Amino acid sequence: xxxxxxxxxxxxxxxxxxxxxxxxxxxxFFALLIGGSTTYVFIQQRRGRSARLATARRVFNEHxxxxxxxxxxxxxxxxxxxxxxxxxxxxxxxxxxxxxxxxARRALEExxxxxxxxxxxxxxxxxxxxxxxxxxxxxxxxxxxxxFLVRERRSPPVRGRVxxxxxxxxxxxxxxxxxxxxxxxTVAVYYHSAAGVFRINTMIQAIDGPVIELRHSEVLTRTxxxxxxxxxxKLPVWVRKLDAHxxxxxxxxxxxxxxxxxxxxxxxxxxxQPGDELELRFSSDSSRTQLRATARVLRCSQHNTIAHxxxxxxxxxxxxxxxxxxxxxxx
Length: 331
Known about the structure:
By secondary structure, this protein is an alpha+beta fold. It folds into 3 domains: 21-113, no CATH class; 145-224, Electron Transport, Fmn-binding Protein, Chain A (Pnp Oxidase, Chain A); 230-327, Thrombin, subunit H (Beta Barrel). 34% of the residues lie in helices and 30% in strands. It is built from 7 helices and 14 strands. The protein has helices at 3-15, 20-67, 71-81, 92-95, 97-109, 115-125, 316-327, and strands at 146-150, 158-165, 169-174, 186-193, 196-208, 211-215, 221-224, 230-232, 236-241, 251-259, 262-266, 277-283, 290-301, 306-313. The strands form 2 sheets. Strands 1-2-3-6-5-4 form a 6-stranded antiparallel barrel. It is elongated. The N and C termini lie far apart (101 Å).
């Protein structure tokens, strides 16, 4: 072994021959070092949390001042903040509609707030859902949206369009038959989107000619998941292939179901096959006016006895009459 190596090992051996006092001093040094580091980290964490709390309060107050929120609305936000995992992050209720909706839904389920209070606050916060995603409130119905109003089970539906939104409610301009809606009565509002067909049960607040003001609601019930409302009914329909001879007589059959985007028909003698282009003629229950549409056979089911159709050309007037027929049968 070389002299240098012997010197190294001798130094290591001497390190383990220190006095107890020296060992205690070393241990105390490391203990103080670890304790000091832990304390420093704890203090920094408290400072960071305090800074985050201060920032959150400042952001919330800035939002509240910008939106000119009333004291009652600030109290409601404080209540909703209690449903957050970190209540001090209440500014998220103003910045994130999805967070607001989640907290509002829990508060509504527990019965600690009213639906129209949540709706009014939603409008005040400026939340406006865009696109074809599912809505969570009547406040998210955009101006121009087509809706159907049904007063009671046997009354005919009335078509209208949303014209404006406010914290008090939403206004709908009726296109026909607005005279039979009484002030302060109940009404069911139906609308459809890519997310499905939904019903809103609400109250009439005021009527000004063809414009009716309805109370907001946070309760929207999906009646169907398809984009266009469809309902089973047995209605006569006359069907002819588009490539048939002009003098060919149409085949009389019946709808199996009917909707705004298509239908299913009884397939007599299995004569219609997928890919066939058809012309349909039918009349609604409430009118003898003949309605027409063209459709394509998508598929057949039940041993080819039912043909499922998609409308390829249909006038909006015809679609409107279909919806009026279908919504009048909704229970």
